[in-house]
Amino acid sequence: MQKTSGIHHITAMVNDAQRNIDFYTGVLELRLIKKTINFDRPEVYHLYFGNETGDPGTVITFFPWAKQLKGRIGTGQVGVTSYAIPIGSTPFWENRLKKFNVESISSVRFGEKYIKFNDPDGLQLELVERDEGPINHRSIGGVQAENAIKGFSGAILYSAQPHKTTDVLENVMGLECIGQEGNYLRFKAEGHLGNTIDIQLNPSVRGLMGAGTVHHIAWRANEEEDLLRWRLLLQDKGYYPTEIRDRNYFKAVYFHEEGGILFEIATDLPGFSVDEPVAELGKKLMLPSWLESKREELEETLPHVEVRVLEGDK
Ligand code: ZN
Questions:
Q1: Which residues are found with C-beta within 5 Å of the ion, ligand 1?
Q2: Interval between CA 152 and ligand 1 midpoint (Å)
Q3: What proportions of the chain, in percent to the nearest 5, are helix, strand and coil?
Q4: Cα 312 to middle of ligand 1, angstroms
Q5: What rounded mean pLDDT belongs to the chain?
Q6: 111 CA distance to ligand 1 centroid (A)?
Q7: Does residue 174 sit in helix, strand or coil?
Q8: What is the whole-number distance in angstroms between the Cα of residue 79 and the centre of ligand 1?
Q9: Which pLDDT value is given to residue 89?
Q10: Does residue 203 register a pLDDT over 80?
Q11: Long-range CB contact pairs, 165-173, < 8 A, 24+
């Protein structure tokens, strides 16, 4: 059976592009690895933040759109996005969040201490110490590599039908259920990042898509052939996967699982350095070839944004 090694990326919706960049690069010190546009709506940015080299398992992406109505976090969504930090770095991050006026609380799940907080649009995030996962060699602003976020540790899924979501995690994506604690079931994938998925077993209110909510979660596949096999398996099991779509940096298939969450399966290749070298990632507005002729027009319409050092780090 095919197994995903874990989360490839998570995509969410927010209102303000600059505020989004300030938080994910300025406070969390992730790297803006790609500044492009929503391929289906070119007047909206698509911003990607990841580790220094933009590896799968580290990448959160956003569609910032000012006029978008606020959503509601609830069932049918990824409720919480979790990041792995190096062992011993919890006090550093508690202090740093405080310095930037981000309220946080700590909670324990499956014996691990999580720092929980929200981003400026209300997305629920958490940090947890993990030994697994390569060190993110990013030393910039107020965060040195010894404390830098490595990438995802995992996510909490708010499924409308937890047992159906369990079935898809185990029997389609190839994760293994490793335990239950209170209202959470924990699943593990084989990779070193984005490998711990918790399903919350007491479904809350129904989620509404909009600013401040996760749009979808993508799982890692190696190459296009894997996508073809997963598509067949999904069709066999009665799901309705999309055709394989070319997203420039990866190829992808999408489907709704029965708990209401939009799942994507995305290839590791070709990756984010396909159109600009690793040293230059995120500096320039990147457009797919079919939109290159509209560059001038798009650059005028899109709001000006920049990666900048925040007051607290000056
Ligand atoms: Zn995606």
A1: 11, 218, 264
A2: 15
A3: 20, 40, 40
A4: 32
A5: 96
A6: 31
A7: coil
A8: 16
A9: 97
A10: no
A11: 165/199, 165/257, 165/258, 165/259, 165/261, 166/199, 167/258, 168/257, 168/258, 168/259, 168/263, 169/197, 169/199, 171/237, 172/230, 172/233, 172/234, 172/237, 172/239, 173/3, 173/4, 173/219, 173/263
- Band (139; pLDDT cuts 50, 70, 90): confident
Distance (Å) from CA 248 to ligand 1 centroid: 12
Q: Is 252 helix (H, G, I), strand (E, B) or coil?
A: strand
- Which domains, ranges and CATH numbers included, belong to the chain? 7-313 (3.10.180.10)
How far is ligand 1, taken at its centre, from the CA of residue 213, in Å? 14
Residue 24 CA to ligand 1 center (angstroms) comes to 18
pLDDT of residue 40: 84
Residue 206 has pLDDT above 80, yes or no: yes
| Ligand 1 mean position, distance from CA 95 (Å) | 32
- Cα distance between the two ends of the chain: 51
CA of 36 to the centre of ligand 1 (A): 13
| Range list of H helices, the chain | 17-21, 90-99, 162-171, 224-236, 295-301
**Rounded distance, CA 239 to CA 242, Å?**
10
Nearest Cα to 159, choosing from 230, 233, 258, 32? 258
pLDDT at 151: 98
DSSP character at residue 53: T
Question: How many angstroms does the Cα of residue 199 sit away from the middle of ligand 1?
Answer: 20
d(CA 149, CA 257): 29
